[in-house]
Design brief:
921 residues; alpha/beta; Aconitase, domain 3; Aconitase, domain 4; 3 domains; 30 helices; lyase; 4 iron, 4 sulfur cluster binding; RNA binding; iron-sulfur
């Protein structure tokens, strides 16, 4: 350990151990900084080398101007990297490919190794094929191994071939929950040096670790690979929003209600690219699990992180989850010595201030398509009736004929049928339209019912966002118990599932004696993984799916997840709602969103109608069972051999050696193309001439719209590729499981069934106009891109606001680049996707304030020339470039925000930059 310019090296004595630390108080101005910036400051002190990190960088951070707009660049070196398998497999594919590229350029392939701990949790691959039965978990896991054997063999090879790379096998838990329960250190002890645990991850919800005081956020897979290889992350010193909490949550509300309220507030305030930090007396009233839930949802309100400082609650959680007393003592001593311990009486300096009285939080949902669209539970019925008009063709335009802004809370509409249209309608007493299309369905087992708009087709207790929180999980289980005792069960059209984030959840549900009640109403264990939250819902029952699609029914999903974007949960479900686990069960019992769930009976029980208030558990009962049912030994036993896996994992055959033996027939894992033809030195940057528009898109296009995700639909280019390679339709698996095969992924880029390409009229899905053909006919985006590539025609994408919001899907950028897109021109970007585009050599441009495709008269049929890019060859980054499009001319801002990003772009991408640097060394 070397000294730095500030003489901050010192010793910290904890018990009988002494640690080297870098004292923050050696730097003038550090005491006033928010917690998150103090962590960054320590990072710079410890990594100062006079080149990447200098004394000027440290002073710039210590003298942070809270009111300034971000402009000062620093280099942040995370302590570790965490991955899940969907994003992690292509990372390992790229590392394996880099080894070969290094060898071909005359370097030492063995140098390609993670230099910081890199841990992967396999949680994204299990699909809910089976549900509602005692053997659902075993059958789903068995199916998971059958589908993903090639991928799992590859990951087991990676675990043996790369140093500092560990894999948590399937069937263990969800990455973020495993992270906070076991992997997170909070304070690192490495080679005798103690320092804050910082961690970036290949999943946007890495921010869940913010709940235990670990600074980190989601990055693209390519950025994570660079971090693993010792590259710092280039970033601008951010603005920090201080969010003051006061009061306590009222009875009847949950952590889910709180986080939906916070999400709504912060999204409305505007926190994209900013840090959010929680402080105040109300923080003490929040259990660690609630803090983690808020941290998890950071991507939903758009901030880089959403962090809570370390306090006694943090220590209690570390003790509960089985961390050693030595580690807990280090965390406490280090945090107090460095000014990182939460003191509610002290208000750090922040850029912006917000405040929430926890007592004002009310029960809530969010939907039908965005997490920030919070709905008070008391208004859920009338809001659904309003929103469903956007999804049911028979009532399009009805808003012009009748008011639909509000409905009486106790509304029980009379039913009348209007046979003038294709579908009958309900009409409320106040004249408002309600769609109605009752369709008779008979299941394979003889169960018969009528399916209607608003019926809940999916009810899933899923995602680490909520299953990490024992209060909402015990609350849900108690509600199930009360429901069973009153003779209730799920409606037969509801696909129910329980997919906890760790095995500890099932342990404490078993200890509390509550599992049988969950099973009784259909919430059997289906797997330990993300499942429905990421679209791994599995198919609906065939009879239900057919009824939905044949009759264009707007059925719904209710899930305890963090994302509800269009087309994400199920291709059969149009409207998706986020809710707490107890409410998920309540809606499964009711079977419909068209209900005032606070006042109407949710179902008939053995003794008559049952209301939600009749089965909702008292908070005192929930707290008592949490206290009596969860113990430290559960965590120590569950995580004792966390990297070992079951006998299925151990039985996988794996190749040996430093270089992977690629199987040319594999449809899961293929050698990445990013280094093909790469020279030791980069080619000069060029302007873009003669480009065509591949897609013209509107606002809020998410990475779910761009990146291949969910099931692979028959008849698409990806399906055709798989069939051409001998894969049967039943074995297509999901796009996520095939992220290690670029041939599948580029065929699924921009192929989301809800994507609306404005080059076409009233068409949804992965289609565009192909201007290489006479008449520019409609074509699959992939097919058109191949035709453009054959003519050496570069491509651009035009977009609106918040382009690339959502998950940190590196394939949203990889697919874009491999389709031949050279530039994106958008009104604004979400942070991670903009960074990922640069990391793949795609130029992110932004319309000037007030400009848009519409205001400039751009139709997307033009040919584009973009000039001024070559100024980057001089070493700097131009503020703007000139864009010409068939006689229209405008300037666009270059969104390459740091010198580090400019280096990546000049090299054609971040991996090429890293590889060339390794070879030079």
């Amino acid at each position: 350990m070397s000294a730095n310019s500030f003489g901050s090296r010192d010793k910290l004595q904890v018990g009988d151990r002494s640690y080297d630390i870098y004292r923050l108080d050696a730097v003038e101005g550090s005491a006033r900084l928010p917690y998150s910036l103090k962590v960054l400051l320590e990072n710079l002190l410890r990594t100062e080398d006079g080149a990447n990190v200098t004394a000027d960088h440290i002073r710039a951070l210590a003298q942070w101007d809270a009111q300034a707009q971000p402009s000062k660049e620093i280099q942040f070196t995370p302590a570790r990297v965490i991955m899940q398998d969907f994003t992690g497999v292509p990372c390992v594919v790229d590392l394996a490919t880099m080894r070969e590229a290094v060898r071909e350029l005359g370097g030492d392939a063995s140098k390609i190794n993670p230099l910081a701990p890199a841990e992967m949790v396999i949680d994204h691959s299990v699909i809910v094929d089976y549900f509602g039965s005692p053997d659902a978990f075993e059958r789903n896991v068995q199916r998971e191994y059958e589908r993903n054997r090639e991928r799992y063999q590859f990951l087991r090879w990676g675990q043996t071939a790369f140093d500092e790379f560990k894999v948590v096998p399937p069937g263990t838990g969800i990455v973020h929950q495993v992270n906070i329960e076991h992997l997170a250190r909070v304070v690192f002890d490495r080679d005798g040096v103690a320092y804050p645990d910082t961690c970036v991850g290949t999943d946007s919800h890495t921010t869940m670790e913010n709940g235990i005081g670990v600074l980190g956020w989601g990055v693209g897979g390519i950025e994570a690979e660079a971090a693993m290889l010792g590259q710092p992350i280039s970033m601008l010193i951010p603005r920090v929003v201080g969010f003051k909490l006061s009061g306590e949550l009222p009875a009847g509300t949950t952590a889910t209600d709180l986080v939906l309220t916070v999400t709504e507030m912060l999204r409305e305030h505007g926190v994209v690219g900013k840090f959010v930090e929680f402080y105040g007396e109300g923080v003490h009233a929040l259990p660690l699990a609630n803090r983690a839930t808020i941290g998890n949802m950071s991507p939903e309100f758009g901030s880089t992180c959403a962090i809570f400082p370390i306090d006694d609650e943090t220590l209690s959680y570390l003790r509960l989850t089985g961390r050693s007393e030595e580690q807990i003592a280090l965390v406490e001593a280090y945090a107090k010595a460095q000014g990182l311990w939460l003191d509610p009486s002290v208000e750090p300096e922040f850029s912006e201030y917000m405040e929430l009285d926890l007592a004002t939080v009310v029960p809530s949902l969010a939907g039908p398509k965005r997490p920030q669209d919070r709905i008070s539970l008391s208004a859920a019925k009338q809001t659904w009736r309003r929103d469903v008009q956007n999804y049911v063709a028979s009532v399009q335009g009805a808003a012009d004929e009748a008011s639909n802004e509000s409905f009486p809370a106790s509304d029980s509409p009379a039913i009348s049928h209007d046979t003038s249209g294709d579908k009958p309608r309900h009409v409320d007493p106040n004249g408002s339209f309600r769609p109605h299309n009752r369709v008779p369905v008979t299941l394979d087992d003889g169960t018969a019912f009528e399916l209607d708009h608003g019926h809940v087709a999916v009810a899933a207790i899923t995602s680490c966002t909520n299953t990490s929180n024992p209060y909402v999980m015990i609350g849900a289980a108690l509600l199930a118990k009360n429901a069973v005792e009153k003779g209730l069960t799920r409606k037969p059209w509801v696909k129910t599932s329980l997919a906890p984030g760790s095995q500890v959840v099932t342990d404490y549900l078993e200890r509390a004696g509550l599992t049988p009640y969950l099973d009784k109403i259909g919430f059997n264990l289906v797997g330990y993984g993300c499942t429905t939250c990421i679209g791994n819902t599995g198919p609906l029952q065939p009879e239900i799916s057919k009824a939905v699609n044949d009759n264009d029914l707007a059925v719904t999903a209710v899930l305890s997840g963090n994302r509800n974007f269009e087309g994400r949960i199920s291709p059969d479900v149009k409207m998706n709602y986020l809710a707490s686990p107890p409410l998920v069960i309540a809606y499964a019992l009711a079977g419909t969103m068209d209900i005032d769930i606070l006042n109407d009976p949710i179902a008939d029980g053995t003794d008559g109608p049952v209301h939600l208030r009749d089965i909702w558990p008292a908070p005192e009962e929930v707290a008592a069972i949490v206290e009596s049912s969860i113990g430290q030994e559960m965590f120590t036993q569950s995580y004792a051999d966390v990297f070992k896996g079951d006998q299925r994992w151990a039985a996988l055959d794996i190749p040996s050696g430093d270089l992977f033996e690629w199987d040319p027939s594999s449809t899961y894992v293929r050698k990445a193309p990013y280094f093909d033809g790469m020279n030791a030195e980069p080619e000069p940057v060029t302007d873009i001439h003669g480009a065509r528009v591949l897609a013209k898109l509107g606002d809020s296009v998410t990475t779910d719209h761009i990146s291949p995700a969910g099931s692979i639909k028959a008849g698409t280019p990806a399906a055709q590729y798989l069939q051409d390679n001998g894969v049967a339709v039943k074995d297509f698996n999901s796009y996520g499981s095939r992220r290690g095969n670029h041939e599948v992924m580029i065929r699924g880029t921009f192929a989301n069934i809800r994507l609306r390409n404005q080059l076409l009229d009233d068409v949804e899905g992965g289609y565009t106009r192909d201007f290489t053909q006479d008449g520019a006919p409609q074509a699959f985006i992939y097919d058109a891109a191949q035709n453009y590539a054959a003519q050496d025609t570069p491509l651009v994408v035009i977009a609106g606001k918040e382009y690339g919001s959502g998950s940190s899907r590196d394939w949203a950028a990889k697919g874009t680049a491999l389709l031949g897109v050279r530039a994106v021109i958008a009104e604004s970007y979400e942070r991670i996707h903009r960074s990922n585009l640069i990391g793949l050599g795609v130029l992110p441009l932004q319309f000037k304030d007030g400009d848009s495709a519409a205001s400039l008269g751009l139709t997307g049929t033009e040919t584009f020339d973009i000039t001024g890019v070559t100024a980057m060859n001089e070493g700097g980054v131009p503020d703007e470039v000139t864009v010409k499009a068939d006689g229209k001319e405008f300037t666009a801002t270059v969104r390459i925000d740091t010198p580090g990003e400019a280096d990546y772009y000049r090299n054609g991408g971040i991996l090429q930059y890293v590889l060339r640097n390794l070879i030079r060394k």
